[in-house]
Design a protein that fits this description.
Number of strands: 0
Mean pLDDT: 93
Protein name: Undecaprenyl-diphosphatase
Order of helices and strands: HHHHHHHHHH
Largest sheet: none
CATH class: Mainly Alpha
GO molecular function: undecaprenyl-diphosphatase activity
Keywords: Membrane, Transmembrane, Transmembrane helix
Low-confidence stretches: 193-198
Shape: elongated
Radius of gyration: 20 Å
Oligomer: single chain
CATH topology: Vanadium-containing Chloroperoxidase, domain 1
CATH architecture: Up-down Bundle
Number of helices: 10
Pfam families: PAP2
InterPro entries: PAP2/HPO (IPR000326), PAP2/HPO_sf (IPR036938), UPP_Pase (IPR033879)
Length: 198
């Protein structure tokens, strides 16, 4: 498994030496796509539709659960990042040496992006973004493929589980009602013109 992991890492990471013009886009994807994810999550939440609210909550709970499982997995297996363990790595971003298994970045993106896709199955863009982020973490030299694949698998399973479980939890509906009542007082919805005319 270790030899296959290293071979797959080299196959992806060495592309940065062959195609240096792609290094900058992959650095951006690896480091800054998280800003896009955060902005889109806020946008979805503040559309104030029930579907989007459940979608964001599904993603958030999936991420929390996946992170917990990921941390437990990290207790069972330890490996440093490729830039620490291997020579001649295309290492492109600042990163502290620690356990890179599984990839937290991949967990974050797969938890959110798979959840977003589950609520909008015609839009595969989110899945493509998650895959690109996972590949980018290998490209910039901070994760092995096994770190990324494990993170993606954990997050995907958690997103699917939350997609089916969360809407069936009465406490979630009650908490959302409480939040929305407070939100309505702080940021009232714009009333439709028809309502204002009456």
């Amino acid at each position: 498994m270790n030899e296959m992991n290293i071979s797959l890492f080299r196959a992806i990471n060495d592309l940065g030496f062959e195609y240096p013009s792609l290094n900058t886009p992959f650095i951006f994807i690896a480091e800054y796509t998280v800003i896009l994810l955060a902005l889109m999550t806020l946008f979805y939440w503040f559309t104030r539709t029930e579907k989007n609210r459940y979608m964001v909550m599904t993603a958030g709970f999936a991420f929390i659960l996946a992170e917990i499982i990921g941390k437990l997995a990290g207790k069972l297996h330890f490996n440093y990042q490729p830039f620490v363990e291997l020579s001649n790595v295309n290492f492109l971003i600042e990163k502290t040496a620690n356990n890179s298994f599984p990839s937290d970045h991949t967990i974050l993106f797969f938890a959110f992006c798979v959840a977003f896709w589950l609520y909008n199955k015609k839009n595969i863009l989110w899945l493509l973004i998650a895959v690109l982020v996972g590949v980018s973490r290998i490209w910039v030299g901070v994760h092995y493929p096994f770190d990324v694949i494990t993170g993606a698998l954990i997050a995907t399973l958690c997103a699917i589980a939350m997609y089916f479980l969360l809407p069936r939890m009465p406490i979630v509906r009650r908490l959302l009602d409480v939040y929305e009542n407070i939100e309505e007082k702080v940021i009232p919805r714009k009333r439709k013109q028809k309502d204002l005319d009456q």
